[in-house]
Design goal:
Mean pLDDT: 90
Number of domains: 2
CATH architecture of the largest domain: 3-Layer(aba) Sandwich
CATH superfamily of the largest domain: Periplasmic binding protein-like II
Structural class: alpha/beta
Helix content: 25-40%
Distance between the termini: 50 Å
Order of helices and strands: HHEEEEHEHEHEEEEHEHEHEEEHHHH
Low-confidence stretches: 1-30
CATH topology of the largest domain: D-Maltodextrin-Binding Protein, domain 2
Radius of gyration: 24 Å
């Protein structure tokens, strides 16, 4: 009888092992990370005409917040910020490209929504940039708030979510308004520039870009409020939790470095920091990379090669960029913003 039980036990152990192996393979655990390492490059899905986020010049050089994030991811995984291939995707194909494995991570100023997070096979790793619908108006109108726009004419893309948001926001406050619509953004900008409407509405980052292109840019101002939420961030395929964690914690490392005042300029000196938090982050007192399947100094490589979140923001969207956007909600939490990294422990 004991031999029979031993045989059954061995069979059950073999069956459990096979099930576990099958589950690991079907779940795709670590598969994207392994693929990226074997390939030697991270493939990032981006847009090629999103000023401040992802844009490519005539020499084929990419720039923008999304591009910088891809560089940080390459630095974390491969130790080389330049080990990235950018795949330009249009809005209709971007999620299919992610599902089909054409890209390892999807950016392209893609907003995190319930539908995209549940029906399109995408898993958003977090918020890289908080955007929202805003308004631009000539300074000589002496208007300082959206709440002063009752009776205004508003240039807006016809049939867009921006148009619906205006109806909700102004309607709820019993504010009068008149829409000036077009299905072409460039035509709306021209209408606004020629005085055909009081304000132009769109994502705040897009309005900042257009403001810089107007011949009388100094005479224009962005109103401070946003009437919608458009949280942009990187998305990965569902079913690969390890790669999801790598992408998420790459983003958190950028934010945490700014919180700890660790920058590309002082990251070497920060190795001598007496604080346990900084030493753990840099891989000196703990090997946090092992939990992600990365090297011990992965976070150090991110900051050394790309800088922290604040550095990246300023050169792509902030005061050192053509858009010159204020940090606003994209500042770290200790300075009144929404950017917040969980503890590195």
């Amino acid at each position: 009888m004991s031999s029979v039980w031993k045989f059954c036990a061995a069979a059950l152990l073999l069956l459990a092992s096979n099930i576990a192996t099958s589950w690991d393979a079907s779940s795709g655990a670590s598969s994207t990370l392994d693929t990226v390492r074997a390939r030697g490059k991270v493939i990032c899905g981006v847009a090629d005409n999103e000023p401040g986020f992802s844009d490519v010049n005539s020499r084929g050089t990419w720039s923008g917040l999304d591009v910088e994030f891809c560089s940080a991811l390459a630095a974390a995984v491969l130790g080389n910020r330049d080990a990235v291939k950018y795949l330009s995707l249009n809005r209709g194909d971007r999620f299919k490209a992610l599902q089909d494995g054409e890209v390892d991570v999807l950016l392209g100023a893609t907003a995190w929504t319930l539908t995209r997070d549940t029906e399109l096979g995408a898993h958003f790793a977090g918020v890289l940039y908080y955007d929202g619908q805003g308004f631009i108006i000539p300074r000589n109108h002496s208007i300082a708030s959206v709440l002063e726009l009752s009776g205004a004419s508003i240039c807006v893309l016809s049939g867009s979510s921006d148009e619906a948001a205006i109806s909700d926001f102004f309607g709820a406050r019993k504010m009068r308004y008149q829409l000036v619509t077009s299905d072409r953004w460039d035509d709306l900008v021209k209408t606004y520039a020629n005085g055909g409407c009081t304000v132009l509405t769109g994502d705040m980052s897009l309005l900042a870009y257009e403001k810089g292109r107007l011949p009388n840019a100094a005479e224009q101002m962005l109103l401070p409020e946003m009437i919608t939420k458009e949280p942009y961030g990187p998305a990965v395929r569902m079913g690969d939790e390890n790669w999801f964690a790598v992408v998420r914690w790459t983003m958190m490392a950028l934010i945490a470095a700014e919180e700890m005042n660790i920058s590309s300029a002082n990251v070497e000196a920060s190795k001598g920091s007496p604080t346990h938090e900084s030493r753990r982050f840099l891989g000196l007192d703990a090997d946090l990379g092992a939990r992600l399947g990365l090297s011990r100094d992965w976070a150090y490589q991110i900051v050394k090669q790309t800088g922290n979140y604040g550095e990246i923001f300023e050169r792509t969207l902030g005061q050192n960029s053509p858009l010159k956007l204020e940090r606003g909600p994209n500042n770290i939490w200790s300075k009144g913003g929404l950017m917040y990294a969980p503890p590195f422990r």
